[in-house]
Every structure is written in C-alpha cells, then in structure tokens.
Write a structure and sequence with these properties.
By secondary structure, this protein is α/β, with parallel strands linked by helices. The chain is built from 13 helices and eight strands.
Length: 274
C-alpha cells in the first residue's frame, strides 16, 4: 500500500525528502495522500497549497497541482483558487507558525467566511526550518532558541481558534494515531465548508532536544500514552485532562458555504464565471 501511494501521489524524483530523521511530517504527508486516495478523488480535481516552513515542503513532494507560496499566505492563495474554480478540492498543508502566527489573520477570516477548503496543520510546536524559535503552539515554559529560559507566552489551541472564528469542522490527529488521523483528514475534505485538522507531529531535532523529550520513538510513545479520544475526554474532569492531548473530531456544524454564496452574487449581477 505504501508503494502504491508513492507511485500515485508522490514526485518520486524529489525523494527522499529533506525532513530530519524522526520528523513526524513524513507520516502526516502519507496520511494526506491516503485520505485523498480513500475518497477516490482524481488528482486533477485536487490542489495542494503550502506556505513556508518544514511542513510546507510537503507540497513539493505531491504529484498533483501544487503551490508553494509565501510565508503565512497559503490560505490567501487557496482562497483565490477556490473562488476561481469552486469545483476543485483545496487542501492547505501548513505549520503552526505559518498558520497561526504570520498567517493568523488569513486563517480566521477564511474560517469566518466558511470557504470550502481543508487546512491540515502539521504542528511540531516549534519553528524547525529557521532554527528552533518558539511558535504560537510552543507550550508555556518550554524552551526554544528564542526562549532560552522558557517561553512565557500562552500557547494557542488552533482547533479552538478556528472553531471560534467560524470553522464548520475541526479535529485533531497525531503522528502516532495514523488510522484515526487519516479518517479525520478524509472527513474534513468531504465536509463542505472550512475544515481544519491539527496534526500533532514530532520534532526530535529542535523541540525534542531542547526540551529533553527524547528521540522520535520516545516522542511518539508519549503521544500513544497521553492522547485521549475526544468522546472520552468529554466525560473526564478537567484535572484528569491536564497534560493530556485530546484527539478526534472536535466540532462540526453546517452553514452556507462562501463560494456558493458568491456565485449567487455573480448571478444577480449578471456576470459569467468560467
């Protein structure tokens, strides 16, 4: 199955990838490809958009229409594609810094508008590509090259941020929980409206080393031992959830999708869409 996914969805001449040994992003890239395959989507009907960062290298490895855009602007580019060609399935692969720091306004406004796209956030809790600076999701108190005494910033819960802004589907998966994460990405792509799946990755090179989390195996074992399904977490008291990672579908609702509303404006104005 892995070889089939590589042959069908990867640019083999670009492999092996440049991610560090033990990085969880390769697992998550495979999860995205598996979700597309499970849905039976034709590659010509899918566009992968990414910004800048470790996660955003993923677009260069996928053998379909892809855009590797500027830092924090992946969702803005994706919005333009969706408005021009609403029939396309748009998948944005982004990172915690790319999506929630420089790209934060694009994230909240695409969610507010409920534009039909799927944002898959590869969250490794650090700026890995540029030297290990702390990111919007670095846990308070953890160390980074720009937080040598520990970060004092509160960390973002990206799915909650997206839900509060208006996203109609949010979820969280992990690099360890592969079947569950594939299903979450698949459900997000199938959902009509703005969907966001945070995929908790592992970065042994910068985040793990700086914070004495162990190697990649130890970091994945931590996900295994500390992740709680969302349905179970809903029944647990707050004190038991402290320090745990809640994964699964977190929110879902239905409301009008933006490009369909936009098409009505074009029709009312007597315009013609390609």
């Amino acid at each position: 199955m892995a070889s089939k996914l590589i042959q069908n969805y990867m640019r083999e001449e670009r492999l092996p990838h440049i991610w560090c040994a033990g990085c969880g992003h390769g697992i998550l890239l495979r999860d995205v490809a598996q979700a597309v395959d499970d849905l039976g989507l034709a590659k010509k009907d899918v566009v992968i958009v990414s910004g800048i960062g470790c996660s955003s290298r993923a677009a260069g490895y996928m053998n379909m229409d892809t855009l590797h855009t500027t830092h924090g602007r992946a969702i803005a580019f994706a919005t333009g594609i969706k408005l021009a060609k609403p029939r396309l399935k748009i998948i944005v692969i982004t990172g915690d810094g790319d999506a929630a720091a420089i790209g934060g306004n694009h994230l909240i406004h695409a969610a507010r508008r409920n534009i039909d796209m799927t944002v898959v956030v590869f969250n490794n809790n650090i700026y890995g590509m540029t030297g290990g600076q702390f990111s919007p999701t670095t846990p308070t108190g953890d160390y980074a090259t720009t937080a040598p005494y520990g970060s004092i910033d509160p960390d973002f819960d990206i799915p909650k941020l997206a839900e509060a802004a208006g996203a109609t589907y949010t979820a969280r998966g992990t690099a360890y929980h592969v079947p569950q994460t594939v299903k979450l990405i698949r459900d997000a792509i199938a959902h009509e409206g703005f969907s966001l799946v945070e995929c908790v990755s592992v970065c042994p090179t910068y985040y793990g080393r700086k914070n004495k989390k162990g190697d990649a195996v130890e970091m994945l074992k931590w996900q295994r031992d500390n992740a709680v399904p969302a349905a179970k977490a809903a029944q647990m008291p707050a004190e038991e959830l402290a320090g745990k990672l809640v994964y699964g579908e977190l929110s879902r609702c239905e409301r009008p999708e933006y490009t369909k509303q936009y098409a009505k404006i074009i029709e009312a104005a007597g315009g013609v869409r390609a």
